[in-house]
Predict the structure of Lipoprotein.
Amino acid sequence: MALIGHRRARGALVPAALALAFAAGCGGGGDGGGRACPMIRGQDGVTVDAAPFAAAHPRARRLCAGKQCVPLAAKPPGPGITVPYHGAPLRIRVVVTAADGSALVDRTVSATAHRVAPKGCGAIARRGRVTVAADGSVRAS
């Protein structure tokens, strides 16, 4: 009886060991490094950030990108707004307003996302960035 239980336990270890060996050798990119590539794909998007502008202009209270808005009152401001990216260049209207609702920055920018991946792996996400600079210019990168 004990021998059968022992065989079952050892039999369960073989598939687990094979899976581990397969994962460890995956994604080496031909350089023999044997790095594993991430299995989970990230979210594609363009992040709009107004932290440099908010730091230079204390009146700045709110960032809007498209129909999404976030407050800029926090010190330091939050991570901004991520607009979903689906492969085509985006036209994003970026507005920074003061507490009274007046627009301090109101610009439309064209933005694209770029492939993000560890060396030797397929793309895990497409990411882009739009920044409102201290001088009020809006730049995509």
In short: The two ends are 66 Å apart (CA to CA).
